Amino acid sequence: MDEDSMGPDAEVGAGAARGGDQSMRGLVEALACRGELVDIDRPVDPRFELGGVLALLDRGPAVRFTDVRGSALPVIGNVLTDRERIAAALGVPKSGILDALSAAIASRQPTEEVAVAPCQELRFPAADVWREVVTPTFFEKDSGGYITAGMIVAHDPVTGHRNASYARIKPLEQTTGFVGIAPNHHLSALARSAATAGRGLPVAVTLGSHPAIQLAACFYLGLGDDELEHAGHLLGEPVRVVRATTSDVLVPADAEVVIEGVLRVDRPVHEGLVSEYHGMYEDYGDGCTLEVTAVTRRADASVQVILPGLAAEHSFLGALPIAAGLRHALRGFGCRATDLAVTLSGGGRVDVVVALPPEQRKQAKRAILGCFAAVSMIKQVTVVDSDVDVWDAEHVQWARTSRMRWERDLVLVPAVPCDRNVPMQQDGTVTKVGMDATAKPGDRAAGNELAVPPRETMDRVHEWLTSDGLGGKVRPTPVLWGALHGAHEGGR
Predict the structure, then answer these.
(1) Residue 307 Rama label (left phi>0; alpha psi -120 to 50; beta)
(2) In what helix (H) or strand (E) does residue 447 lie, and over which residues does it extend?
(3) d(Cα 74, Cα 347) in Å, to the nearest integer?
(4) Which residues contact 435 (CB under 8 A, 6 or more apart)?
(5) Is-contact 388 487, C-beta < 8 A?
(6) CB of 353 within 8 A of CB of 98?
(7) From CA 204, how far away is CA 428, in angstroms rounded?
(8) What pLDDT is recorded for position 141?
(9) 192-to-185, 187, 200 alpha-carbon distances in Å
(10) Which pLDDT value is given to residue 487?
(11) Looking at residue 17, what is its pLDDT?
């Protein structure tokens, strides 16, 4: 059965874990059963070779490396590279991903603290950290190797605020590392708060938690909101946490590996060149120092890695939580988006496509400005009708070329303050662009109706092609499929 055939009444956001293991293991095992996991048994160098394999298989199977030089543990990557896998991990149809994530943004449940946890089966001193956790060098001009799948959970002892988020981590000396965090990042705010009290910020870098927890860590929430509490909605149960062995930080109990430490903003370190989500290099200058205090892990742990830059997994981990947050925020602006995509061409961060129902076409410019207001890094927004598949670049470009008059439907907002990682920003500002690519009455004398075969005929032909074993070869033109079925019904 196609996973989208579950229909609109399928339970959303409940069933990802339901009392099971809250790590990535369940999804990895499911991928193996479906033939979507390959094992690389030959020796692989973490410098460029590991990243090269992930890059060549980026839109293919998940990859498990069993013999990475310098690593005693298996390494797993390319796990969440498409919406089908993410939907499976959340226990929802593909068309229900944003519903599940949006509901989780609006919902929270307290974490459940446990005394004994799989992530603490083995304990190691700080000096063992870079022997336990491999740090691949992915790209030619990167200044070093990185932990790229490290979800950092933090507890500010001054304010009591907790946070879960992602940041890149590079080894420095035997027990220290570099952490790259933007100044407006909530983790930076917590670290600065701790520094004002003359102390470092207790943190733990976790690898291999359940995909629902990883996605929740990418939500745009308020300062002090604990992302682990919002992950509970996606799991259908509270996130189980255990107190770190060297601090009061609460870490996901079923994670594969945990690096405990203290983040110090008063000990800056220059990073050098690093690849960013947009696929190019940046030199952001100084970052923070991580002082490692201990390492814990499962007895049979694996190390998760995420290929950075424009890779699919890196893009989707940002794109889907941002898309859910935007759709949630647009409701406050009176815009009822039927679907919303943060595109892979924008690295899953800066380029947005919003679909509005026909009765809301006049709200297109409001939706554009609403997206700019909700997430500061967004640079480009296109608004389309609900018959357009927002995740299909060809379909969206058709809407731009067929339904826009540039002198009327283009919105330029110059010199907008933006995040430091937005491509082409200068002195902290960038010009943002919006495109109203919805169909307007009167634009065409012949109307906007698309020329398509009757739907009942296409459905009948699709059925007999499937019965003849040709269903897997069905690849209709995106515009045709959207016109026949409505893109908001779940995509192809």
Answers:
(1) beta
(2) none
(3) 28
(4) 368, 380, 381, 382, 383, 400, 404, 409, 410, 411
(5) yes
(6) no
(7) 31
(8) 94
(9) 11, 9, 9
(10) 63
(11) 59
Which candidate, 111, 108, 226, 240, places its Cα nearest to that of 162? 226
The residue type found at 235 is: L
Nearest to 58 by CA among 274, 219, 279, 257: 279
The token pair at 116 is 């004994």
Dihedral (C-alpha) 320, 325, 331, 337: value to the nearest 10 degrees?
A: -10
Residue whose C-alpha is closest to residue 296's, from 116, 56, 88, 42? 116
Judge contact between 491 and 482, C-beta under 8 A: no
DSSP annotation of 44 reads: B
User: Is the CB of residue 403 less than 8 Å from the CB of residue 369?
Assistant: no
Contact call for residues 367 and 381 (beta carbons, < 8 A): yes
Cα distance between residue 371 and residue 326, in whole Å: 6
69, 214, 230, 234, 402 from 237: Cα distances, Å: 38, 15, 10, 8, 46
Bridge-based pairing of strands 257-270 and 201-207 is antiparallel
Rounded to whole angstroms, the Cα distance separating 453 from 326 reads 35
Burial of 38 (0-12, 13-18, 19+ CB in 10 A): middle
Give the neighbor-by-neighbor strand order of the sheet with 351-356.
339-342, 351-356, 380-385, 429-436, 410-417
Q: What share of the chain is helix, strand, coil (3-state, %, to 5)?
A: 35, 25, 45
SS3 state of residue 487: helix
Query: Which residues contact residue 69 at a Cβ distance below 8 angstroms, ignoring those fewer than 6 apart?
Result: 43, 44, 45, 46
Mean pLDDT, 10 residues at a time, over the chain (492 residues)? Answer: 35 52 96 97 97 96 97 96 96 95 94 97 97 96 96 92 95 96 90 91 97 96 93 96 97 98 94 90 92 98 96 96 95 95 94 96 96 94 95 94 96 91 87 96 84 86 90 81 64 44
CA 225 to mean position of chain CA atoms: 18
Distance, first Cα to last Cα, the chain: 14
The Cα-based distances of 234 to 100, 436, 475 in angstroms read: 7, 33, 32
* Nearest-angstrom CA–CA distance, 439 and 446: 13
Count of all residues that appear for the chain in the document? 492
Six-digit token string for 273: 């060149």
Contact 259, 205 (CB under 8 A): yes
Distance CA 207, CA 303 (A): 7
**Rounded to whole angstroms, what are the CA distances from 17 to 5, 34, 239, 420?**
21, 19, 10, 37
CA distances from 154 to 171, 231, 244 (A): 19, 16, 11
